[in-house]
Amino acid sequence: MNGQKKIVLSESQIPAQWYNIMAEMPNKPMSILHPGTKQALKPEDLYPIFAEELARQELNQTDMWIDIPEEVREKYKIYRPSPLVRATGLEKALDTPAHIYFKNESVSPVGSHKLNSALAQAYYCKKEGLTNITTETGAGQWGTAMSFAAKVFGLELAVYMVKISYEQKPYRRSLMQTWGAQVVASPSMSTKAGRKILTDHPTYQGSLGTAISEAIELAMQTPDCKYTLGSVLNHVSLHQTVIGLEAEKQMEIAGEYPDIVIGCFGGGSNFSGISFPFMRHNINDGRKTRFIAAEPASCPKLTRGVFQYDFGDEAGYTPLLPMFTLGHNFAPAHIHAGGLRYHGAGTIVSQLMKDGIMEAVDIQQLDSFEAGVLFARTEGIVPAPESSHAIAAAVNEALKAKEEGVQKTILFNLSGHGLVDMTAYDQYFAGDLTNYVLSDGDIAKNVSVLEKII
Amino acid sequence: MNGQKKIVLSESQIPAQWYNIMAEMPNKPMSILHPGTKQALKPEDLYPIFAEELARQELNQTDMWIDIPEEVREKYKIYRPSPLVRATGLEKALDTPAHIYFKNESVSPVGSHKLNSALAQAYYCKKEGLTNITTETGAGQWGTAMSFAAKVFGLELAVYMVKISYEQKPYRRSLMQTWGAQVVASPSMSTKAGRKILTDHPTYQGSLGTAISEAIELAMQTPDCKYTLGSVLNHVSLHQTVIGLEAEKQMEIAGEYPDIVIGCFGGGSNFSGISFPFMRHNINDGRKTRFIAAEPASCPKLTRGVFQYDFGDEAGYTPLLPMFTLGHNFAPAHIHAGGLRYHGAGTIVSQLMKDGIMEAVDIQQLDSFEAGVLFARTEGIVPAPESSHAIAAAVNEALKAKEEGVQKTILFNLSGHGLVDMTAYDQYFAGDLTNYVLSDGDIAKNVSVLEKII
After folding, report:
1. How far is the alpha carbon of A284 from chain B, nearest alpha carbon, in Å?
2. What is the pLDDT of residues A22-52, one digit of tens each?
3. Would you say B280 and B429 are in contact if contact means Cβ atoms under 8 Å apart?
């Protein structure tokens, strides 16, 4: 390391290709099924909703490397390559023999890794001749990323933002508007789906499921308009592999290789991004790196859910996905890591989990904030509440290494900063936050809905 | 450029020394005077308030280069060197032949350039054996920087935050608390100065002047405690020269030299930081670079103030400084660029202005936001309202170059991002912001107070 704190690559070292782990998986993900016919989906079935190239990427299980379009790489240069940082301050505070590194995705102008896929998606939509796109956003990370990406490629964007977030996270709404997006609180009167819910439940505070329904409906009814999504799907994970591909080169410069790779886990986009490029060396080269998905204890699909076909949305409109899930009707507690409140895991991660290629831990809300504050005070960056779950898992592993007296190399993904999440920190310091414990009975009850699906 | 968007230096290229322009100025700044005796101050006179090394730096007019302590350089590595970015998106939107570069100081974990001096000040305080420090903050940029710097060097910090900001900018307050500082709304009951004002005016919303008085009083009455300040003073400008020293190397890599260097202007810290290292080539090597301080039209000390001895604070407690000023009793409008609401300019900048080595422009509030939004939509980064003044000045120069059909190279300092200033953008989009026009009579009336001073 020669005393280096950050390992920085040049722009020419931005990856030229994304890594498609599906081509190398010992067991491929099971097919995505049409919800009506229960037949395996073909790319064409997805063309009405997604840009055609994205639909093809979604189901591509053969091409290991997919070229990143030059126009997208050009825009990546705005913030990529992101630094790999040795967390020397954190190591010292923990007095651990472990070497802790983090990939700093918070340097993106939108403050998170989400822009890696947003730029790709906006590019393919533009290239297909579209003029408009739609999306939904819960906590707001994806919506902000898509807002800037749409502007950069000259597309008009409508974002359906879950109403409770629209009201509680005004800064994220303002950011989207600053980048030029139309932001609508969901449920809204602008779609049939929204009007129906508002008629039945005038005070409904919204959900990701409803926002997805509204965004898809608007896309279907608007000429030259398609829908975009920021997590869970295979093409999103694909785009996020730039994180791990860069980190691989940077770890090599550091002269180390990770024993443990950690990402927080919502739908899987940032965990996949940091993990898959390293996982390929477990699959191919006999490496024994551990991959840990850090999910919130309040939404533990990987640690306590079941592997089953389930819908991607609450209302049950989407194709059926083979996934670890708590049931699409699962209503997670209102934790501050809004980006991790999703009932299922993407199909690739679910298969990898089933095959024992990766593992998962659940993190309590208070532990995530304790780790986040320690990180802020030692490394400077105030982490997003989502990212603090990865930090907490890294801290646990570093303390274990100390206890065992072994030098481990730990790499985690800092998916974003928390500068627009400060109300969450206020509530933590005020003692207003709690942990959430789910009983086995609660989980079994939710999961029981899956029996009727397939 | 070879298509490079960002020019990035390695950590070993972080400057080893700060540049002290006072050693090379054709006319040195006039003496700072004791307010009682009207005698020139010596460093010892400042020891009771400031760390001794900082007091010596403040009055050092002879040493051109001052070593940056290794411990400070080590902490600079958390975010430095900061990137120099070619604003290709902005250039394209303006359709200008000008090459526009910006130094991106928003990458600091606290979101602005203020950390460059905060780390240095915290280090010298710690080295002197202090355990506690105090400071004040208006908009909150300096307070957040000092909070992290104090934590990093193991000092306890008390921040007096102007009450109206404390209430209107809760995110900045939260950030300071997250980094472990004690934040007190000023005026407060914790000091004699605060109690007096609260007794006389129970609903007083606070001012920077009052907060300074409170912070100094607490420092004087606490053992092993001194006071720190984030702008105006010579030692602050000195520390900020890391910005321009890095930019100089980066422009060389880009194969260009700036025709114009621009910084927004409050007390002078970021303008000095980006300008002084380039200014030395005007002074010594016959370069003809123009240096433009971009100040708000609502607080135009450089463009419409007078050069006179004046107090640094509203109450008239500080030493007398030879400065361009609007009078220490000047009450600027409540523009959103809170960091630029200061009545005077630092003594070095004031002398340089007097000698015609630099110039200044005033920017209207609405023009600053228009430029800031254009920048966000083309370069991704949402700028701090303060920095948007520099962007507006750069846009004006780029459009002038287009009109004249000449290729100019423009460099400006992006002093910080605006992610915790989104309420300002909301108000801009809602049409709730206005311009401010000061009449000559208003200015003359304020300035008349100076006649009695010396």
Report:
1. 34
2. 999 999 999 999 988 999 999 999 999 999 9
3. no
